[in-house]
Amino acid sequence: MGESTALSAYLRERRLAAGLARTELAARAQMAPLLISQIESGALVPNHAMLQRLFDSLDVPHWYRKHILVLGLPAVESGAVATAPSAEDLADLASLTHPACLTRFPTMDMLAANSDYQRLFPGLGAGVNMLEWMFLNPVAKKVYLDWNTEAQLLVHAFRMLAPLAPTQRVSAITASCGESPDWDPVWTSEVRPQDIARRHLRLRERSTGLERRMMLRIYDPAFPSRPWWLYRLIPVR
Hints:
Structural class: alpha+beta
Radius of gyration: 19 Å
Number of domains: 2
CATH class of the largest domain: Alpha Beta
Oligomer: single chain
């Protein structure tokens, strides 16, 4: 019997969230119930075709599937995995000419942010959770001109990927954000596909009051591998 992986646990959580028995999921995915049991226990790592059928049957949005695989499958590491950005990582971040930050996904805990990012998002730096800042810091609604849409997208990603994060951390973030009257309405709302495919964000600079239109780019460090992602905001010209 294999050990349960984050991916196998994720698939099980998604099945339970959908209210499906293993036999029902097996029928939807056109797979034997035994295979579903083996995948959820970690005894079997599903191949690409199996994963696509399971994702389709569990209504997992296409735009999250690569992230789920990156977070859910055990990485092959040649050495110790970094737990915090090194001096070189921070120097690299500071050298970027546009707003950028390092964020642990999917909990969205901030590990570092360059000066341009902190100017654009006051109070959002190392040690701050992006979701908590979005819902509990009044500055967020002044910075994001389309706050409701951006909050929905952030919460939807968190909701879909939370099974891949430590349960205690997810519970702490949910409890903290739940103090905001906006949390429950946003949590239960549905994200429109056209919002996911948006080309840019509309932000207001606190120092000048001017609107800035920026593209969001997210990068997963590959060489060397790091347990965080790089968020960059590129001005639209």
